[in-house]
Amino acid sequence: MKSSRFVLVLFFGAAAFLSGCTSAQLVRVQPWERATLADYTMRSDRDPLHVALAEHVFFSRESATGGRGVGGSGCGCN
Q1: Coil, strand, or helix at residue 20?
Q2: What is the pTM of this model?
Q3: Tens digit of pLDDT for each residue in 21-41?
């Protein structure tokens, strides 16, 4: 009974440990892919309205602003 539990725990431990393995070559961006990643549509700040709304949400939830040239804090009730 104990040996079967040990084998089962060992199997699942090895499966969990080995499932996270990856090759560094899969993560690396190839030179011919860099133009796609540098495209205007990949920018996170391409839509000024979305940026303004996202900053308002962060301001309201965290009660603080800053990092964009405006410093301060508040309750977010404006």
Answers
A1: coil
A2: 0.36
A3: 655 556 677 888 888 888 888
